[in-house]
Amino acid sequence: MDASPVDHKVGAFSNQAPWIIDPDALEWRGGLDAVRARRRADVPRMLEKGRVPPVGRIARTVWSVGLALGLWYLRDRRTSSSRAGLSTRLRRSFEQLGSTYVKLGQIISGGEGLFPEELVAEFKLLRDRVPSEPFADIRAVVESDLGKPLQEIFERFDSVPIAAASIAQVHAARLRTGEEVVVKVQRPQVARLVAADIRAMSWLAPLLVGRIPVAALANPPALVELFAETISEELDFRLEAENMIDIARVLAETAGDEPRSTIVPRPHPRLVTQRVLVMERLDGFAWDDVVGMQGAGVDTEAVLHEGMVSFMEGAMLYGVFHGDLHGGNLLVRPDGTTVLLDFGITGRLDQKERLAFLWLLVGATNGDVRSQLRALRDLGAFPVDTDLDAVFNDLGLDRPPIDPTKLEADELVHELQDLTKKLLGYGARAPKELMLFVKNLMFLDGAIATLAPDIDILGEIQKVHTEITVRHGERLARELGIDMTIADFDPDSVKAALGLGDDVEKLTYRDVQQRREIIRKRMEERRKRA
Predict the structure, then answer these.
(1) Does pLDDT of 129 surpass 50?
(2) Furthest-apart CA pair in the chain: how many Å?
């Protein structure tokens, strides 16, 4: 096969093409704009509480989580492995409750530094180690959607899945035409179960406002809305296949004539339906296999840097980015190329939202807090009629930043509670794309510990900023209508956003961990006193 397939002009794909992608000839793409619109229109209906609550589903949820908490309280609470025991029980509870709660667990697993490390580590098992469906049920879905017996399409179809997650599971296979592929198959009945779970969550979420500190900051009803928006589109694999094409196109255009540092598997031109997605098989090192990568001569710091740049470029320039970065969705090939997997959740910003997002980033790097507030409003984080001057003054955004490591536990809790109360008072919410972007940043933050633990984080932020400015500064300045000197990088503003003092010159991941440990110990001491 030619080392430069013709569809390299279409997207960032592999050099060894099992088939060529021609977007205009893809049979499954017809009418997808209408399908995506219908999926989005379904969200309000999914969130409708109705007159009568779904008592059965609510009772099952309360019973399962309550049982996990109760058994932990009686058996593990006073042991040295208390947190680990509770995390394991909650993970098992979420597994039993099914797809929607597994998805919640997956989101928690990306919250390193926000949630307890034992909970994050345990919930990482929900990414691809969820109990699989019986193969007979998977076979029935594939044959029903593709319209033929399995053996007429596949020369081999492995009955044991490569991975099993919340919405679907993935099987290795070989087509009758000889290509090695992976087949993503939706779990039977998952659409019905997700709809029931969303209705139950819609009833429970308002009761949690202000009761769980972390959840309160995010606003539980808004989190349920985020669930509904993301899961609704995840239930149609034709939309995921289109996401693959769109992100591959963005990666190719941002790379220009440079070698592609990140690539996307090709979806099959014909074998894509609402519940089945056949795609090119690409292999590589697991994201956390640093020893294997470095043994093959891969520069892991370069992998991390290129990943950050491509992620930022997609959002800033095209308003399209992978919305669910985590270790299970990334492979690294021996040549240092990163393979993106699982495109069910994809961030999409319209032109107004993309420009607001640009202003948010510019404000973050030059210290313009008022621009950031306007950008957040335009992204939907505040109602359109919000008095931003009042928000600025009420939140004390003109005061020097607070270093959380300098606060006592009671002071930190008070600051969080006060911030939560004020934000909710202004009707603040968590827009889907902003939540996805922040979650991805949290993953990339954690990836530093794996791939580049000694890198200077402040220096890397400036390096990414400089590279994007050099490559795209003229376009960004033209779109925002500003002089590029306004967007100059201000290291003190970045330090302030991270809660660091002006005297901090370097910040490694080990420094971040030390800061988090200080806060954790203080909060633990407060809990014990209480």
Answers:
(1) yes
(2) 69
| Structure tokens that stand for 114 in this block | 């926000």
* Residues 405, 519 contacting (CB under 8 angstroms): yes
Answer yes or no: are the C-beta atoms of 13 and 245 closer than 8 Å.
Answer: no
Are 361 and 414 in the same domain?
yes
Domain count for the chain: 3
Out of 234, 256, 280, a domain closes at: 234
Please name which of 201, 189, 210 lies closest in space to residue 229, comparing C-alpha atoms: 201
- Decide which of 186, 216, 234 is a domain's last residue: 234
Retrieve residue 393's tokens.
């003054």
* DSSP code at position 287: T
Rounded to two decimals, the pTM is 0.85
- Is residue 339 a part of any domain in this protein? yes
Specify the DSSP element, H or E, that contains 371: helix 369-378
What residues make up the domain containing 275? 6-30+236-348
**Considering the chain, what percentage of its residues have pLDDT values greater than 70?**
91
HSE-CB for 370 with a 13 A CA cutoff? 6
**Which position has the token pair 């969200």?**
43
Rounded CA separation 526/460 (Å): 35
